[in-house]
Design goal:
It is built from ten helices and eleven strands. It is an alpha/beta fold. Strands 3-2-1-4-5-10-11 form a seven-stranded mixed sheet, sandwiched between helices. The protein has a four-stranded parallel sheet with strand order 7-8-6-9, sandwiched between helices. The radius of gyration is 22 Å and the shape is elongated. The chain starts with a strand and ends with a helix. The structure holds 6-O-phosphono-beta-D-fructofuranose. 6-O-phosphono-beta-D-fructofuranose binds next to loops.
C-alpha cells in the first residue's frame, strides 16, 4: 500500500475535519501518499481527487463541516457506479480508502470492497451516535451540546411566558441525541423513536406537572422519518390540554454545524490515527471505534444502526427527575 484516499459521506458532522487532519498527518508520517476524495462516493466515481499533505490540513481542527464536502450518492449503490469508482481509484493508483460517515457509508464501503480489490476502513462520523462498535461517534458530543444550548435558551422564554414547548431534535431514527439533550436540558418529557409514545400518558404527566406548580414545560421530541413529528404531537396535545400555551421549535440542521467540542476533536483525532494504523496492519472492511476507552475494530456488516438502542433506564431517570 502506497497511496490512500479519504472521503466523508452522508450527513456531515462536527469533528470530521479533525479526523481528516489526523488521517493525513498519520499517513504522511508513515510515508503514505494521500488523496482527498471530494463529495463522498460521488467524487470517487468522478475521479474528483486532490493531493493532500500535512500543510493542506493546517487550521481545520476547529472547523465544523468537512473540507472534503459530503454527499449521499444513489449512483454508487449500483454495480455500474461502483465500477466507475474502481476505475477512477485505479487510474489514480489509490490502493485503500478511509471513509468517514455512518451506517449508509459503511454499507457502501463494504459492498465495494467485497467486489473490488480496494482495502477499506471506516471512522464513525455522525451526530446520531447510532453505530454499533463505538461508545460515541464523531459529531455526537457537539450535536447534543448545540441542542442543549438551544433548549436552555428556549427554557428562558418558556418560563417567561408560562408556555409548553415541544422541541424537535435530529437523530435519524435513533433517540440518542434526544435522550441526552433532554436529560441535560431538564425536559419534562422525552419522546424517542424507539418506544411508542402514549399521548394519554404524556398529557397526564404534563397536567400533573402543572398541578405541582410547574409554570412552564419542555418536551424534547426526536424526529422520526424526517422532520415534523413535534408539530403533529403538539397539535394533538393542544386539543386536550388548556393549561399551557403551546409552541414548537424544530432545531434542524443547526445541530450538524458549528465548532466541534474538545471531546469530538480528541475522538476524531484518535479514530483518524487508528484508521490509518488499521490499514497499515492489513485490516479490511472494519470500522474503528472506542468502547470502554479501548480501541475496537468492528466489521462493517456489524457496525450498523439498529444494533444499538437508547437506554430505557435513562428514560426512566428523566421521567422521575421531571417530578
Ligand atoms: O444522519 C444525520 C442526520 O442529520 C439525521 O439526524 C437526519 O435525520 C438526517 O441526517 C438529515 O439528512 P439531510 O441533511 O439529508 O436532510
Amino acid at each position: 500500500m502506497k497511496k490512500i484516499g479519504i472521503l466523508t459521506s452522508g450527513g456531515d458532522a462536527p469533528g470530521m475535519n479533525a479526523c481528516i487532519r489526523a488521517i493525513v498527518r498519520t499517513a504522511q508520517y508513515n510515508n503514505l501518499e494521500v488523496m482527498g476524495i471530494m463529495r463522498g462516493y460521488s467524487g470517487m466515481m468522478e475521479g474528483d481527487f486532490m493531493e493532500m499533505g500535512p500543510r493542506s490540513v493546517s487550521n481545520i481542527i476547529h472547523r465544523g463541516g468537512t473540507i472534503l464536502k459530503s454527499a449521499r450518492s444513489k449512483e454508487f449503490r449500483t454495480k455500474e457506479g461502483m465500477e466507475k469508482a474502481y476505475k477512477a481509484l485505479k487510474a489514480a493508483n489509490i490502493d485503500a480508502v478511509i471513509v468517514i460517515g455512518g451506517d449508509g457509508t459503511f454499507r457502501g464501503a463494504n459492498e465495494f470492497s467485497n467486489l473490488f480489490d480496494i482495502q477499506m476502513v471506516g471512522a464513525p462520523g455522525t451526530i446520531d451516535n447510532d453505530l454499533f462498535g463505538t461508545d460515541f461517534t464523531i459529531g455526537y458530543d457537539t450535536g447534543i451540546n448545540t441542542a442543549l444550548d438551544a433548549i436552555d435558551k428556549i427554557r428562558d422564554t418558556a418560563h417567561s411566558h408560562n408556555r409548553l414547548f415541544f422541541i424537535e431534535v435530529m437523530g435519524g431514527d435513533a433517540g440518542f441525541l434526544a435522550l441526552w439533550s433532554g436529560i441535560g436540558g431538564g425536559a419534562e418529557a422525552i419522546l424517542l423513536p424507539e418506544f411508542d409514545t402514549s399521548i394519554d400518558g404524556l398529557i397526564d404527566s404534563l397536567k400533573g406537572g402543572y398541578e405541582r406548580q410547574k409554570s412552564s414545560s419542555i418536551v424534547v421530541v426526536a424526529e422520526k422519518g424526517g422532520a415534523g413529528r413535534a408539530i403533529h404531537i403538539a397539535n394533538v396535545v393542544k386539543d386536550r390540554l388548556d393549561q399551557y400555551e403551546i409552541r414548537v421549535t424544530i432545531l434542524g440542521h443547526i445541530q450538524r454545524g458549528g465548532t466541534p467540542t474538545c471531546s469530538d476533536r480528541v475522538l476524531a483525532s484518535q479514530l483518524g490515527y487508528e484508521s490509518v494504523m488499521a490499514l497499515l496492519s492489513g485490516e479490511n472492511r472494519v470500522m474503528v471505534g472506542i468502547v470502554n476507552k479501548e480501541l475496537k475494530l468492528t466489521p462493517f456488516e456489524e457496525a450498523k444502526k439498529h444494533h444499538v438502542k437508547a437506554d430505557k433506564n435513562l428514560l426512566e431517570l428523566a421521567r422521575v427527575l421531571s417530578f
